[in-house]
Amino acid sequence: MPLFLDASSLDEIAKYSKMGILGGVTTNPTIMAHDGIRGVEAAKKRAKDIARALRPLPVSIEIFTDGDRAKMLAQAKEFASLADNINIKITIHGPHGQPVYLDLVNELETKHGIRVNVTAMMSAQQGILAALAGATYVSLFGGRINNMGYDACSEISKLRQFLDDFELKSQIIIGSTREALNVIEWFNAGAHIVTVTPSLIETMLIHPYSKETVQMFLNDAARITGKTGHSKRKR
Ligand code: E4P
Predict the structure, then answer these.
(1) pLDDT tens digits for 191-206?
(2) Phi, psi for 95 (deg, rounded to 5)
(3) Is the dihedral of CA 178, 183, 185, 187 positive or negative?
(4) Positive or negative, the Cα torsion across 155, 163, 188, 201?
(5) CB 88 within 8 A of CB 61
(6) Catalytic residues
Protein backbone atom coordinates (compact mmCIF):
# COMPACT_ATOMS: atom_id res chain seq x y z
CA MET A 1 0.00 0.00 0.00
CA PRO A 2 1.69 3.19 -1.18
CA LEU A 3 0.05 5.90 0.94
CA PHE A 4 1.44 6.61 4.42
CA LEU A 5 0.10 9.07 6.99
CA ASP A 6 2.50 11.64 8.47
CA ALA A 7 1.00 11.99 11.95
CA SER A 8 1.20 11.04 15.61
CA SER A 9 -2.40 11.65 16.70
CA LEU A 10 -4.07 8.33 17.53
CA ASP A 11 -7.48 9.70 16.57
CA GLU A 12 -6.30 10.80 13.14
CA ILE A 13 -4.43 7.55 12.56
CA ALA A 14 -7.53 5.53 13.56
CA LYS A 15 -9.76 7.65 11.32
CA TYR A 16 -7.78 7.04 8.12
CA SER A 17 -6.70 3.53 9.03
CA LYS A 18 -10.36 2.48 9.22
CA MET A 19 -10.82 3.69 5.63
CA GLY A 20 -8.28 1.07 4.53
CA ILE A 21 -6.25 3.64 2.59
CA LEU A 22 -3.06 3.56 4.66
CA GLY A 23 0.02 1.44 4.15
CA GLY A 24 1.86 2.81 7.16
CA VAL A 25 2.60 5.82 9.33
CA THR A 26 5.57 8.16 9.53
CA THR A 27 6.16 10.65 12.29
CA ASN A 28 8.94 12.88 13.55
CA PRO A 29 9.77 14.97 16.65
CA THR A 30 8.15 18.08 15.16
CA ILE A 31 4.83 16.31 14.66
CA MET A 32 4.98 14.76 18.14
CA ALA A 33 5.83 18.09 19.81
CA HIS A 34 2.97 19.76 17.90
CA ASP A 35 0.62 17.07 19.24
CA GLY A 36 1.65 17.96 22.81
CA ILE A 37 3.82 14.92 23.55
CA ARG A 38 6.35 15.76 26.26
CA GLY A 39 9.07 13.48 27.63
CA VAL A 40 10.78 10.44 26.13
CA GLU A 41 8.54 8.02 28.03
CA ALA A 42 5.43 9.71 26.60
CA ALA A 43 6.93 9.53 23.11
CA LYS A 44 7.73 5.84 23.55
CA LYS A 45 4.20 5.18 24.76
CA ARG A 46 2.76 6.98 21.73
CA ALA A 47 5.06 5.06 19.39
CA LYS A 48 3.89 1.81 20.95
CA ASP A 49 0.23 2.81 20.71
CA ILE A 50 0.57 3.81 17.05
CA ALA A 51 2.38 0.55 16.28
CA ARG A 52 -0.34 -1.48 18.01
CA ALA A 53 -3.08 0.37 16.12
CA LEU A 54 -1.34 -0.17 12.76
CA ARG A 55 0.11 -3.67 13.19
CA PRO A 56 1.33 -5.26 10.94
CA LEU A 57 1.77 -2.08 8.89
CA PRO A 58 5.07 -0.21 9.33
CA VAL A 59 5.52 2.82 11.59
CA SER A 60 8.58 5.06 11.32
CA ILE A 61 9.76 6.58 14.60
CA GLU A 62 12.65 9.06 14.65
CA ILE A 63 15.31 8.91 17.37
CA PHE A 64 15.79 12.06 19.48
CA THR A 65 19.53 11.80 20.07
CA ASP A 66 22.10 13.44 17.83
CA GLY A 67 25.87 13.31 17.56
CA ASP A 68 26.69 10.67 20.18
CA ARG A 69 26.80 7.45 18.17
CA ALA A 70 26.56 5.13 21.18
CA LYS A 71 23.46 6.95 22.46
CA MET A 72 21.91 6.95 19.00
CA LEU A 73 22.49 3.21 18.64
CA ALA A 74 21.06 2.54 22.10
CA GLN A 75 17.96 4.65 21.45
CA ALA A 76 17.43 3.13 18.01
CA LYS A 77 17.50 -0.35 19.54
CA GLU A 78 15.22 0.75 22.40
CA PHE A 79 12.62 2.29 20.06
CA ALA A 80 12.78 -0.70 17.68
CA SER A 81 12.15 -3.08 20.60
CA LEU A 82 8.82 -1.37 21.38
CA ALA A 83 7.04 -3.24 18.56
CA ASP A 84 8.06 -5.43 15.65
CA ASN A 85 6.49 -3.09 13.08
CA ILE A 86 8.52 -0.05 14.19
CA ASN A 87 11.20 1.23 11.79
CA ILE A 88 13.80 3.69 12.97
CA LYS A 89 14.21 7.07 11.34
CA ILE A 90 17.78 8.37 11.24
CA THR A 91 18.58 11.71 9.64
CA ILE A 92 21.09 11.60 6.78
CA HIS A 93 23.46 13.66 8.91
CA GLY A 94 23.51 16.09 11.83
CA PRO A 95 22.61 19.79 11.79
CA HIS A 96 26.12 20.82 10.77
CA GLY A 97 26.67 18.09 8.19
CA GLN A 98 28.85 16.11 10.58
CA PRO A 99 28.93 13.40 11.56
CA VAL A 100 27.43 11.34 8.78
CA TYR A 101 25.24 8.57 10.16
CA LEU A 102 25.37 6.00 7.36
CA ASP A 103 27.65 3.68 9.35
CA LEU A 104 24.96 3.55 12.03
CA VAL A 105 22.30 2.87 9.38
CA ASN A 106 24.39 0.03 8.02
CA GLU A 107 25.00 -1.44 11.47
CA LEU A 108 21.31 -1.30 12.42
CA GLU A 109 20.24 -2.98 9.17
CA THR A 110 22.98 -5.61 8.89
CA LYS A 111 23.91 -6.45 12.49
CA HIS A 112 20.74 -5.78 14.47
CA GLY A 113 18.04 -6.58 11.92
CA ILE A 114 16.43 -3.15 12.46
CA ARG A 115 14.75 -1.55 9.45
CA VAL A 116 15.90 2.05 8.97
CA ASN A 117 14.23 4.98 7.28
CA VAL A 118 16.92 7.52 6.37
CA THR A 119 15.20 10.87 6.56
CA ALA A 120 15.53 14.61 5.88
CA MET A 121 17.12 14.02 2.47
CA MET A 122 16.96 16.69 -0.22
CA SER A 123 18.63 15.07 -3.22
CA ALA A 124 18.90 11.87 -5.22
CA GLN A 125 22.61 11.79 -4.36
CA GLN A 126 21.86 11.53 -0.65
CA GLY A 127 19.26 8.87 -1.38
CA ILE A 128 21.76 6.83 -3.41
CA LEU A 129 24.20 6.75 -0.48
CA ALA A 130 21.46 5.85 2.02
CA ALA A 131 20.29 3.03 -0.26
CA LEU A 132 23.84 1.70 -0.66
CA ALA A 133 24.19 1.75 3.15
CA GLY A 134 21.27 -0.67 3.25
CA ALA A 135 18.33 1.50 4.36
CA THR A 136 14.90 -0.09 4.00
CA TYR A 137 13.37 3.33 3.28
CA VAL A 138 14.98 6.43 1.81
CA SER A 139 12.96 9.57 2.53
CA LEU A 140 13.17 12.61 0.28
CA PHE A 141 11.42 15.76 1.49
CA GLY A 142 9.70 16.79 -1.73
CA GLY A 143 8.09 20.02 -0.51
CA ARG A 144 11.33 21.29 0.97
CA ILE A 145 13.20 20.36 -2.25
CA ASN A 146 10.69 22.42 -4.26
CA ASN A 147 10.83 25.25 -1.68
CA MET A 148 14.54 25.61 -2.41
CA GLY A 149 13.93 25.90 -6.15
CA TYR A 150 14.92 22.34 -7.07
CA ASP A 151 12.59 19.86 -8.75
CA ALA A 152 11.38 17.05 -6.47
CA CYS A 153 10.08 15.01 -9.44
CA SER A 154 13.50 15.00 -11.05
CA GLU A 155 15.22 13.89 -7.81
CA ILE A 156 12.65 11.12 -7.33
CA SER A 157 13.00 9.77 -10.87
CA LYS A 158 16.83 9.81 -10.74
CA LEU A 159 16.79 7.96 -7.42
CA ARG A 160 14.20 5.41 -8.62
CA GLN A 161 16.22 4.72 -11.76
CA PHE A 162 19.30 4.03 -9.66
CA LEU A 163 17.46 1.69 -7.27
CA ASP A 164 15.96 -0.25 -10.17
CA ASP A 165 19.19 -0.43 -12.19
CA PHE A 166 21.17 -1.85 -9.28
CA GLU A 167 18.29 -3.85 -7.80
CA LEU A 168 18.59 -2.27 -4.37
CA LYS A 169 15.94 -3.06 -1.78
CA SER A 170 15.30 0.51 -0.59
CA GLN A 171 11.87 2.01 -1.09
CA ILE A 172 11.51 5.72 -1.75
CA ILE A 173 9.23 7.60 0.64
CA ILE A 174 8.41 11.17 -0.36
CA GLY A 175 7.32 13.37 2.50
CA SER A 176 6.97 17.09 3.13
CA THR A 177 3.89 16.98 0.94
CA ARG A 178 2.38 20.44 0.42
CA GLU A 179 -0.29 20.10 -2.28
CA ALA A 180 -2.73 17.38 -3.34
CA LEU A 181 -1.13 17.52 -6.80
CA ASN A 182 2.19 16.40 -5.25
CA VAL A 183 0.75 12.95 -4.49
CA ILE A 184 0.02 12.13 -8.14
CA GLU A 185 3.11 13.78 -9.57
CA TRP A 186 5.45 12.10 -7.08
CA PHE A 187 3.97 8.65 -7.68
CA ASN A 188 4.30 9.28 -11.42
CA ALA A 189 7.93 10.28 -10.92
CA GLY A 190 8.68 6.92 -9.28
CA ALA A 191 8.03 7.19 -5.55
CA HIS A 192 7.17 3.86 -3.95
CA ILE A 193 5.37 5.66 -1.11
CA VAL A 194 4.04 9.17 -0.53
CA THR A 195 3.42 10.22 3.06
CA VAL A 196 0.65 12.79 3.56
CA THR A 197 -0.79 14.84 6.40
CA PRO A 198 -4.39 14.32 7.55
CA SER A 199 -5.41 17.69 6.12
CA LEU A 200 -4.03 16.75 2.72
CA ILE A 201 -6.14 13.58 2.69
CA GLU A 202 -9.18 15.79 3.31
CA THR A 203 -8.15 17.97 0.36
CA MET A 204 -7.75 14.89 -1.85
CA LEU A 205 -11.08 13.48 -0.74
CA ILE A 206 -13.50 16.41 -0.63
CA HIS A 207 -14.32 18.20 -3.85
CA PRO A 208 -16.67 21.22 -4.15
CA TYR A 209 -18.32 19.80 -7.29
CA SER A 210 -18.91 16.46 -5.55
CA LYS A 211 -20.64 18.39 -2.76
CA GLU A 212 -22.86 20.20 -5.25
CA THR A 213 -23.67 16.96 -7.08
CA VAL A 214 -24.56 15.12 -3.89
CA GLN A 215 -26.80 18.03 -2.87
CA MET A 216 -28.58 17.74 -6.24
CA PHE A 217 -29.21 14.04 -5.62
CA LEU A 218 -30.52 14.72 -2.12
CA ASN A 219 -32.82 17.50 -3.34
CA ASP A 220 -34.25 15.30 -6.07
CA ALA A 221 -34.59 12.38 -3.67
CA ALA A 222 -36.67 14.73 -1.49
CA ARG A 223 -38.92 15.46 -4.48
CA ILE A 224 -39.45 11.74 -4.95
CA THR A 225 -40.17 11.08 -1.29
CA GLY A 226 -42.43 14.11 -1.01
CA LYS A 227 -40.18 16.10 1.28
CA THR A 228 -39.28 19.68 0.37
CA GLY A 229 -36.14 20.60 -1.50
CA HIS A 230 -35.21 21.51 -5.03
CA SER A 231 -32.23 20.57 -7.08
CA LYS A 232 -30.22 23.44 -8.56
CA ARG A 233 -29.94 21.43 -11.79
CA LYS A 234 -33.25 20.46 -13.42
CA ARG A 235 -33.29 17.57 -15.82
C1 E4P B 1 8.41 12.65 6.49
O2 E4P B 1 8.48 11.51 6.90
C3 E4P B 1 8.44 13.82 7.35
O4 E4P B 1 7.90 13.48 8.61
C5 E4P B 1 7.65 14.99 6.87
O6 E4P B 1 6.95 14.72 5.71
C7 E4P B 1 8.38 16.30 6.89
O8 E4P B 1 7.56 17.29 6.33
P9 E4P B 1 7.72 18.86 6.56
O10 E4P B 1 8.63 19.39 5.49
O11 E4P B 1 6.33 19.37 6.41
O12 E4P B 1 8.29 19.07 7.93
Answers:
(1) 999 999 999 999 999 9
(2) -65, -15
(3) positive
(4) negative
(5) yes
(6) 89
